[in-house]
Backbone:
């Protein structure tokens, strides 16, 4: 664990970063789990008398145009934003790795077809493709998840493909084949554990990007619907009030978004240091 | 940019490189068209109802089905779609009542002016920053470089845009209102390019040029900031590798002036990875344009697509996705060709 690592060795910048990353990650996970229970106010109930109040002791982050408490909404939104990001990355990781591993193992025409599909996804500006997919699937949270998963998929597929095709000829793989394992079992039980670390690092880095992508989609009005609390749509709501100076409406959800993205990218870096000290 | 000499043999070699790269890109073009077709024709739901819009009646849905050829089988539909595309037919917008291609063409200069401005900014800041960082690794410029890159990647473009508007328009009142390409009191410059900076400059109207540039500053900075990080980081990494090479050591040992070693020997050899990063950054800029246009009320293709999307007018959204993907393919082609011309080794590898 990082805490003991810090005690044992000299405190380096990288270690401090890791501790910060883990602390922030813990905070986000706790907020996602307990947000609705610890939020001081109902995140959805309008309170017209409290509308557009600046941050104060009773409303630490102020209130929005309906008098809803921004702090409560930012807290409660954590769960939705993290669920969207985790679901998207999990789908991309699973399907991308499966496709890439199959292409890398089989070679030949399956490799060419899968490679062509991946190249086609990458031929789009990714956010534009995400907008197109989310629009095509219909305006819902699950379309935002699928759209985000699709644009993330190529990174896993490429990584898994090159790793599997490299490991294929390794002695341990040939040994497993001689021992009578089927190709599926060899890939799942023998190769996958060996190629997992870079995929894990990629996932952590991608989580931040998935949050960014999903928030961007909801900022332009895709996916999350109005009363529901989500960081992207809250920033979008706050944008309307910039001209009257109610800065707290967009600053706090935007800051939550930024810190979340930063957290996952720090975690990705930390994970990379941990799993592969030679790289970097 | 230096031109390639020898080897392939001048203009003919250049043409051969372009042809080779274009052929390599062709399958992607087919893929892009197929994906956009699939997005609207195979997904759940009735595409006729989809294109007829939210206020369609049963009769108008049938009419749309017939007009778009949706009563044919899927293969015939795809052939119809491709034939339409080849003739520049992207369908009709329900909101504007215009052909989508005409709508997009009218708004494209606004988006391109923004995107190219942001790309220029990212290059103008990123390359010198990366070079300085490479010359003194672990110096303060190097630290600045990685800080900018980390922050740039963690900042949602739309959030950065709003912060800049709040600070520079609302608080300081230095920037003009974020409401489009020009103050509504002024009339746009005459001219055909549609790039208002160019048109105003050609018309010799300096106050107008200043007004146009004033509107551009905040959106361009918002969009450009993300690009600075990747470009600076790649310049740094690529240059550090080249500076450690034998030929740079030889050039230095031979007593060539440092500037000549840096530009003629090192930078030119470091440029290919940087070019590839520029392609990647361009892809991001085309996507983020959508968000920045929304924040700044910029009347470009992204804002057009969003407005259409929210009104359930899908032909413009589909057209927007196709046109942006075409653009990106062309940019990648340009990057590939430029890379092959700058560094003939790339052309040989491919």
Residues:
């Amino acid at each position: 664990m990082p805490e003991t690592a810090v005690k044992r060795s000299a405190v380096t910048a990288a270690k401090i970063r890791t501790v910060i990353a883990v602390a922030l990650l813990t905070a986000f996970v706790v907020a996602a789990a307990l947000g609705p229970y610890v939020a001081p106010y109902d995140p959805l109930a309008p309170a017209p008398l409290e509308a557009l109040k600046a941050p104060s002791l009773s409303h630490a982050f102020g209130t929005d145009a309906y008098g809803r408490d921004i702090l409560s909404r930012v807290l409660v939104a954590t769960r939705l934003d993290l669920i969207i990001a985790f679901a998207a990355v999990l789908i991309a990781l699973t399907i991308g790795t499966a496709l890439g591993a199959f292409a890398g193992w089989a070679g030949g025409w399956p490799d060419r077809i899968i490679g062509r599909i991946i190249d086609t996804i990458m031929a789009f500006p990714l956010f534009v493709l995400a907008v197109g997919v989310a629009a095509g699937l219909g305006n819902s949270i699950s379309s935002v998840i699928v759209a985000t998963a699709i644009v993330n998929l190529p990174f896993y597929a490429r990584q898994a493909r090159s790793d599997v095709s490299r490991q294929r000829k390794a002695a341990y793989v040939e040994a497993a084949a001689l021992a009578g394992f089927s190709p599926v079992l060899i890939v799942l039980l023998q190769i996958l554990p060996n190629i997992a670390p870079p995929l894990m690092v990629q996932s952590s880095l991608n989580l931040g990007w998935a949050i960014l992508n999903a928030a961007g989609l909801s900022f332009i009005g895709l996916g999350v619907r109005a009363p529901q609390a989500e960081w992207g749509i809250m920033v979008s709501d706050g944008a309307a009030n910039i001209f009257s100076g109610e800065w707290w409406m967009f600053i706090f959800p935007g800051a939550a978004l930024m810190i979340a993205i930063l957290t996952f990218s720090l975690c990705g870096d930390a994970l990379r240091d941990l799993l592969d000290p030679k790289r970097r | 940019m230096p031109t390639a000499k020898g080897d392939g043999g001048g203009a003919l070699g250049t043409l051969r490189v372009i042809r080779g790269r274009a052929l390599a890109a062709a399958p992607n073009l087919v893929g892009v068209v197929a994906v956009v077709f699939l997005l609207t024709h195979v997904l759940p739901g009735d595409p006729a109802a989809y294109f007829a819009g939210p206020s369609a009646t049963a009769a108008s849905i049938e009419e749309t089905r017939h007009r778009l050829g949706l009563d044919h089988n899927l293969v015939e539909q795809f052939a119809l779609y491709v034939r339409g595309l080849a003739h520049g037919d992207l369908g009709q917008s329900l909101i504007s009542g215009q052909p989508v291609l005409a709508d997009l063409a009218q708004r494209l200069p606004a988006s391109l002016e923004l995107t190219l401005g942001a790309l220029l900014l990212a290059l103008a800041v990123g390359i010198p920053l990366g070079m300085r960082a490479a010359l003194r690794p672990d110096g303060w410029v190097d630290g600045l470089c990685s800080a900018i890159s980390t922050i740039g990647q963690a900042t949602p473009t739309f959030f950065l845009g709003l912060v800049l508007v709040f600070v520079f328009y609302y608080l300081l009142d230095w920037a003009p209102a974020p409401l489009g390409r020009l103050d509504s009191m002024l009339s746009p410059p005459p001219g055909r390019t549609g790039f208002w900076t160019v048109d105003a400059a050609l018309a010799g109207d300096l106050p107008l040029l200043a007004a146009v540039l004033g509107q551009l500053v905040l959106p361009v900075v918002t969009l450009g900031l993300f690009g600075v990080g990747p470009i600076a980081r790649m310049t740094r990494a690529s240059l550090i590798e080249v500076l450690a090479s034998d030929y740079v050591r030889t050039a230095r040992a031979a007593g060539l002036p440092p500037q000549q070693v840096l530009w003629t020997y090192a930078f030119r050899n470091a440029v290919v990875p940087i070019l590839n990063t520029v392609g990647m950054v361009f892809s991001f800029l085309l996507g983020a344009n959508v968000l920045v246009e929304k924040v700044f009320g910029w009347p470009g293709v992204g804002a057009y697509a969003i407005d259409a999307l929210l009104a359930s007018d899908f032909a413009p959204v589909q057209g927007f996705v196709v046109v942006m993907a075409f653009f990106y393919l062309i940019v990648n082609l340009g990057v590939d060709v430029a890379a092959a011309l700058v560094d003939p080794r790339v052309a040989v590898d491919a």
Summary: Confidence is low (pLDDT under 50) at residues 5-10 of chain A.
